[in-house]
Amino acid sequence: MGTETIANNKKSIHGDPVVTYKILALVFGVATIVTGCTSIPEGLQPVTGFEPDRYLGKWYEIARLDHSFERDLSNVSATYTRGKNDDIRVKNRGFNTKIGAWKQIEGHARFLEGDTLGSLKVSFFGPFYGGYQIIALDRQDYRYAMVTGPSRSYLWILARNKTLEESIYAELVSQADAWGFDTRQLIRVEHNLPDEKMRLAENTIKTDSKENIKMITSCPSTPNCVSSIDRDRKHFIEPLRFAGSVKDAQYRQLNVLSELNRARVVTVEDNFIEAEFTSFVFRFVDDVEFYYDDRHKVIHVKSASRVGYSDLGVNRRRVEKIRKLFSRKENNGHDQ
User: Fold this and answer.
1) What confidence score (pLDDT) does residue 194 get?
2) CB-hemisphere CA count at 13 Å for 34?
3) Secondary structure of 34-48 in the HEC alphabet?
4) Does the residue 265 lie in any domain?
5) Average pLDDT in the 164-185 region?
6) Is the residue at 149 inside a domain?
7) How many CB atoms lie within 10 A of CB 244?
8) Domains in the chain: how many in total?
9) Which of 30, 150, 309, 334 is the most buried (most CB within 10 A)?
């Protein structure tokens, strides 16, 4: 399905700042819907006679109305499988051309009015859902589909293959235009990488089974970075510690991030959170990564400036502030 969903009660996740317990969306690409609404736009109808088992499998994003949460993403795909209790498991994946890395997130979807109507709600973290409405579908072979979210600002054209016949694409665009979508803003999604290609950093934290997991990288030589896996004393900083489950720790961490000015959550995965911090005056961006080591109950962290040489200790102070806020929430034993 083309979605990662969700938003907050006041500001969307790509706004300033990410808001506590109002974070209803976690960015990573693949047709993310940033809104908490699960309804269908007025005047549109989801497809009837829907056959969910035929919809399972892999879909490629052919075109989309772009948003900040999908900006710079190419080679976008979504894979759907049966989950527990009739849920649909969702795995969204895309390649960020700006940073040269794959992004992936997993979630689940549930039908809103029975599984014969193409109307679902999707969640990629916690109890927060957003709408996923299938408004056009190849009923014969399930080779292509058109999906919207809770408003006409969201539109995705999906196909089973990386390309779609131009005649079919033109027909879908014409239908979308008649339904009131601004099809002039559609972006054609490039698929120029093999599905199995993954670009990993040279330095990665590994599980005990020696399998690669989401990366936390060492710092560069410049003194504008701190990392809990770095052996250089000028860069090293202690990891954070947590009790309970990784998911509980991630909830607390997201709430901490929501309390910090000009923070934006970029990626949330099973054991990883990535965020951006933007400076107030010059709009410089720092990247912050958290990796959750469940066995040792530690959160490895890296905070680094994208440009410049010295940060005058900004990244170290940021991590220590996050540590203090996170520890307070751990001691209080709640997420808000």
Assistant:
1) 73
2) 21
3) CCCCCCCCCCCCCCE
4) yes
5) 97
6) yes
7) 12
8) 2
9) 30
